[in-house]
Each structure stands twice: as structure tokens, then as C-alpha cells.
Amino acid sequence: MTTHRIRVGIDVGGTFTDAVAVDATTLELLGQVKVPTSHHHEDGVAHGIVEALDRLLAETGRAPEDVAFLAHGTTQATNALLEGDVAAVGLIGIGTGPAAALTRRLAALGRLQLTPGKSLPLAYAHVADPDDAAAVGRAADMLAREGAQVLVATEPFSVDRPEGEKAVVAAARSAGLPLTAAHEITSLYGLRKRTRTAVVNAAILPRMLATADLVDSSITKAGVESPLMVMRCDGGVMSLDEMRRRPLLTVLSGPAAGVAGALMQERVSEGVFLETGGTSTDISVVRRGKVAVQHATILGKKSYLNALDVRTVGVGGGSMVRIGGGKVTGVGPRSAHIAGLPYACFATLDDLREAELTTVRPMADDPEDYAVLDAAGGRFALTMTCAANAAGRVPEGDFARSDQEVARAAVAPLAAALGVDVATAAARLLDVGTAHVKKVVDAMIRDYRLDQDTALLVGGGGGAASVTPHLAEVSGLEGRIARHSEVISPIGVALALVREQIERTIPGAGQEQILAVRAEAEAAVIAQGAAADGVEVEVTVDPQTSTVRAVATGATELRTQDRAHRADEAERLRTAAASLKTDPSQVTVLARTTAHTVYGTEVRRTLRATRHPVRIVDADGVIRLHVPDARVETTRVADAPEVLAKLVRETTSYGDGGVRAPAVRLLLGSRIADLSGVLAPGPLLALARSELDSRTADEPVIAVLEVRT
Q1: Is 409 helix (H, G, I), strand (E, B) or coil?
Q2: Which helix (H) or strand (E) holds 389?
Q3: What is the largest CA-CA distance in the chain?
Q4: Taking the model in full, what pTM does it have?
Q5: Which residues, 6 or more positions from 221, have their beta carbon under 8 angstroms from its beta carbon?
Q6: Interatomic CA distance for residues 257 and 277, integer angstroms
Q7: Which tens digits make up the pLDDT trace of 615-663?
Q8: How many CB atoms lie within 10 A of CB 349?
Q9: Is beta strand 700-706 parallel, antiparallel or unpaired with respect to 663-668?
Q10: CA separation for the pair 156, 34 (Å, rounded)
Q11: Do 283 and 256 meet the contact criterion of CB atoms below 8 Å apart?
Q12: Residues 405 and 297: beta-carbon distance below 8 Å
């Protein structure tokens, strides 16, 4: 019978809701189901979530009490903004004198464009004294009469002095509407951007609250005892209570689920993840084992929402080929799905009898240069998937696999029109289609300074095989298709870690203030259900913007992966040598813990300059960290503070740009503590001590230091 509990991930898409069950110990996929997304049901998408869960449990033979972790990702918030289906917001500005002038200008946020011709519904009221409860009550009641469904309080400098916003929120409760304060959504300076972020959050709050309550009650009725988590837009999950407070964090979370799957299932530490559907490809980056995030643009304006840096290209598995002048002139953006045409490669040879190539205008506003086949079985689209199958790029058993003979027959009329053989025609189609993707991939590799020696292209989504294998070939990068690529998003939801990010603007931040932000982030993920012993916190201090950022992650249970495969020493050495681009005989084991082995080699640039690149490989043979030039020292916890202080003194750089401490990573047990986000020696050493505090005196510590110039 059941030996392991399961983790369930549910991804609510625009058309289908996908659910997967993953073994909570081995993290292997046990089952997957697909149901139509229930937009029009009286319970909304909640009905589809519960239906998917019921079918998944039945398919895997598990009971509700076997569910150790349950999370879902949803496009509901994103769709609400795209479709303009939001609540009317009542904004209460606070202040007198110059502060009043600043807040009154925020009434212009009502001009934010949701959709062409439709603005964000916003009404504004002002209170001079936040402690005047009667005045606040009158303002809230006025906004409610004007149609406001949710209220936001905002005041200049509330990041440092939140008492005014808190007082307004308390006094405005009499209006009976959901309330929020701008400083609760983000604690960064910038009144207009902070308020704009809070207002957009409020606009989707009522709808998301209703859905959250329905999903929560439905899951409870189904007998699932584990708390429900929700996918965030930065690749982690949060508790349902946190989603009720900040639903904006679910915006743009769709692509984040896929890259979370690549990060956790595929163990990618450096590379580009391409999630390819039928119409488009979402491209995102994993750098040094972490997803790349940035402040997102929402409704055409920069916000303080930290979201996955995802760039979308209008090329997918169903993208149709365009021809003219005897050559392939383009691929997409029109897809076979939107044109209402079947893929030619999924027809039969009998269907493709007497096929003739012609061009059409799929939709009324499209150019008339999209190639189709008119054949015995009807009209068919020539797509990227057809070309990939004809070229032998689609692996056996892949979601996009078709009969290669049929695919070649589908491409044959195009080849005849181009005056080439089928293989060449397929390659030209793929060249043109992947060129759009390659341009973006190259830009992201440059933007994030990815290590070309170790950067990996990983394809996910049902159309992965139509883009990633050919792109890897033409770019010279190593590429692979993720296991179970068609359900990589719900797998990412199932495997995602609880995540919280705390940002504070602290000019001249000292050690105590930095450690306080770190502690706040750690406490936040523990409060949401993360196991305290496994929480990791990465701290970054940006001296240019005075921003202190702490990102905490942790699992809801301590994971003890009982994997069938562990790489032996020889396999780990070969992996490191291949990444270092040298012979295994030139690679040295510099240090090791029970979970990681540190490999290094020597690269002589000149007679007087030598680099020491390092690779850290885990027990599965996956490279977890690569440093182009590093110093590695082994010590023990009791001696580490003194040893680290000496090392930091010796490797700190001084110049016109100021003091720059080395980028430090500490290997502690099964963890890699990344302290590389701190430039000042004092706070860096303070953070190192905080990582060591809970460790026993004799436990080994490996320090990997990268000198910054």
C-alpha cells in the first residue's frame, strides 16, 4: 500500500487545469490529470481545482490524508488585469501642507489604463489628521457611496512612520470594506510607485478573496488536512492567508511555475528555461541556482512587485510558416490553434494524399502568406512541430511526437516549392522560427552574464521539442527537454518552496539592521509553514539605492530524498571536468561535505596570472555552483569566525567604487549559504556568524571566496 505521502500541484490555465501528484520523498511523478478550467461554474475556478484533485487521488490510489502538500497556481489575477475585471478602489490620502499636495496628486492613478478605453476605477478622499477617527469615517463612507469596493490608505514616508496609515485603516473599518495600507504591500521609498502597487493589489483583492475562500472550503470538505499554498510570481509559494493580504503576488505566476519545475526537478543551476506552448515561448533565467526576478511592469508602469523576469516570443509549437519569393519569410505569430486548423504532422498519410501547398489569410487582419496544405483529408497547417518531427528533433515518447513519415510527407510540398529536399526545408523553417527565440536568449545570457561554459537550455511545455533541440544545435549550447515537459508547470507548483522577500530602504544600513531584515524574512516563511531547520536566507545590500533585501526559502517539511541514483566519485569528477573544459586528470578535489564536492583546476592566462575556477557538485552529480576564479578554505564552526575574518581582510578590494568584500559562499552540511549579495566586510561577517550560530563547534565549514574587482 502507500509508503510515501504525496505533494500535489495544480496549475489553473486559461483553458485547462492540470494537476500532478509527486512522491513527497523521492519527488518522482506518480500521476497527472487534465480537466477543463471551470470559469463559468458558480464556484468559478475552485470547482475545477477540486475536480482535478478528486480525479488525481482516484488515479493514484491515494486518500486525502495522504496529501502532505497542496499548492495551486492561477492566472486569475493576471486575467483580471488584462480583461479589466477589477474592483473599484477608494484611496484615502493622508497629510497636511506639502504632504497633502503629494498625496492629492495620487488621484491621477484613476487614469491607469486597464484595457483600451477602460481606466482603473478609483475615487479619492483626503484626511489631514489620521487620528481624527470621525473624519476618516466620513471619508470612507463617502468613498463607499461612490462605489468603492476596497480601500487603501497612503501617506508619505509611511515606510518609516506607518502609524498614520494604521490609524486610518483602523478607523475606516466602519465602512465594512476590505482595507489595506500601502506600507503593508511594499516597504520601499517612492510614494507614487508604492501607492500604485498597493492600489493595483487592492483592485484584485475582493475577487481573489472570494476565490480563496471557495478553494479553501472546498479543499477542507474534500478531507485534505495540509494547508493550501498558492504560487507566487517569483517562483515560490505562499500561504493562503498571505495571498489574501497580497494577491498581487500571484500576477505573472504562470511562467514562474514552469521555471520552478526546471529548478527543482531538473536541478538547473545555470541556464535558460524555455516554456513553449502552442503559440508562444516564455523565456526565463536561472543563475547560480536561483531564478532571475525584477520589479514587474503592470498596467504599463513599473511596480514594486518582484516577479520572474520572463520575456515572451510569439513562436510556439503551433506557429504557422509564412512563405514568399521561393523562401521561408517568417514563422508566426499566428498559430494553428487560433486559425482553427489541425497540424499536418498529426494527420495520416491517407489524409495528406494529393496535398497542395497554398497560402491563406488565417484571420481577417492577417497577411495572406501563411502556408497551408489542401489535401484529401482537408486543410492542414504547417507548423514548427511538423518541421521538428520531420527533422527528427522530437524524442520518442515526447508529447509533441508524431509519425516521422507523416511529418516528412507534410513538409514535402513546402520542400518542392523551395526547391530543396525535405530535411533542408524543415531546417529552414526551424531556423527562421528559432531565430526570434535565439535573439532573446542571447540577450538574457548577456544581461545576466551567464557562464557560457555551463549554461544549459531546458525546454518545458507541450511544444518544447519544437524549439529547444534545434535552438541548442544552432547556438552551440547544451540543451535538453525537461522530463514530463507537458506538465512542468504543475510539477513546479508541487515542488516549489515557501518563499518570502523582505525589502527595506535603509540608508547606511548597519549590521543590526541587516540582521533584523534577515530575521524578518526567516520568520515570515516559518509562519507560513516552512520547517525552521531547513530555511535558507539570501541577503543583498545595494549601496546605490540603500535597499536591503532578504529572500527566505524553505520546504513545508524536511526533505529526505531517497533517490535510487547517486552519482559515484568517478561520475562527479567527469561532470566537473566537462564543465571546466579540461581533462579529469587536471581536476583536483579541493574540499567536500556529505552533500557536496568542491572541484577545481588551474588556468594559466599569462606567466604571472592564473585563474582557479571551481565547480561544486552535489551527490546526484549536478553542478550546484560554478565560480570562474575562487579561493577555497576548510575550517570548523568554532574557528570559522576568525578564519573568515582573515580571509575577508585578505580578499577585500579597495578602489574608486568603494570597498568590495569578496563574494562568499559557505558549505554547511547539506546547504550552500550564499552571502554574495553583501559588499561591506562588517555585515558580511555578521551574516556569516548568523549562519554558524545553530551549528555544533566541530562541524566542518567550507568557504568559497570569489574576489570582486
Answers
A1: helix
A2: helix 384-390
A3: 82
A4: 0.83
A5: none
A6: 14
A7: 999 888 888 888 889 999 999 999 999 999 999 999 998 877 678 999 9
A8: 12
A9: antiparallel
A10: 48
A11: no
A12: no
